[in-house]
Amino acid sequence: VKNKVNMQQTKLSVIMNTLKSSNFPRLWFISPLIRYSHHAVKNSLLAKRDHSTYGCTNSCWNCEFKHDCKLFCPSCEIIQCGECASKSLNFFELLQLRQTFDISVSSLKEYYIKLQTRLHPDKFVKKSSREQSYSTVHSAVINEAHKVLSDPLKRGLYLLELNGYVVDERSVNDNDFISSIFALNFQVEECEDVDELKIMLSNIDADIKHDIEDTNIAFTNNDFESAKRELIKMRYRRNLKQLIEDKIMKLT
């Protein structure tokens, strides 16, 4: 057993020294950061609508009341195309939240439920095909908005995008942090003790909590570079957390 431990420590030492080399690709051992693009998501959802048949005219298709692309007609309350609103409003505006990292999750959930109560396709099964089409698209966009804003990591990446910042593999430049994450990955792979894995999981959860707090401070100060660094750390720790949870499930 002692020889096995020594071999593992030697192997880890060699790999970490190699990892610190400036010529070594740093991200070979972990899933890359993926840029979240809300524009691509919304455009793909909106593309499902038949614009040639149901184009936006800035007036109600049912009663011809003029309005500025509301989701529902202010006059007859019939669901509208809302193409302009869907394209121009970001997810914060769509769910009536301040454009900030520190949001009220309860307010987000409350307004999301309120919108879906009116827009969900189940509410339009007996309506016209046009109304069903509008409902499907609006509901999908609102679901995506809720999914993004309710998750701290996705919300942070989304905020960076709104402010013109891109997070990808080239954004990672902290060799010490990457080395520590790799070492933990190695420990998880080698560990067969569920209790030890649970301790590691608890520590990772605490680190992620600190990442969220530091990210909030960075966004509050409009320090987008620091926010980007914290979100990168959060993403790597999220991946590590998933690895630990999978290993615990495998052993139990």
TrEMBL record:
The keyword Chaperone applies. Pfam families: DnaJ, HSCB_C. Keywords: Chaperone. Residues 90-162 form the J domain. InterPro entries: DnaJ_domain, HscB, HscB_C_sf, HscB_oligo_C, J_dom_sf. It comes from the Eukaryota. GO terms for molecular function: ATPase activator activity; protein-folding chaperone binding. One of its GO terms (biological process) is protein complex oligomerization. One of its GO terms (cellular component) is mitochondrion. Belongs to the HscB family. This is Iron-sulfur cluster co-chaperone protein HscB, mitochondrial. It comes from Hydra vulgaris (Hydra). The gene is HSCB.
